[in-house]
Amino acid sequence: MPDEILQNQRQTIEKFIRQDSPANQEHYRVISTGKGGGGFVAKIISKEYCNHYNLTAVEIGQAGTIPVAMGGLLRAVNVAEPFLSQGTLAAGTFVIVSRAGDKYVFSRPV
User: pTM above 0.70?
Assistant: First the structure.
């Protein structure tokens, strides 16, 4: 992704986690100022199997607007769910995704 998009997403995430809402308190994270390390916002499209989901990255616009999908599908693992259980997150759920080695991961409690 271009650096400008990553910077915009980091700013959006920082703004999101500063809001004082119980739902947001589970998603605090450290945003690094160095190269890499940051996450991006994605929307769940479907469940692949177990705790693996198909996602698409989204760009968050102004307040009150619908996030816009960008890029193709990617597969990510919800590390908050047991690895052998069936995933329970619904399509349309938004998550913050990070890269761990060669995998995309997110942590969204169910």
Answer: no
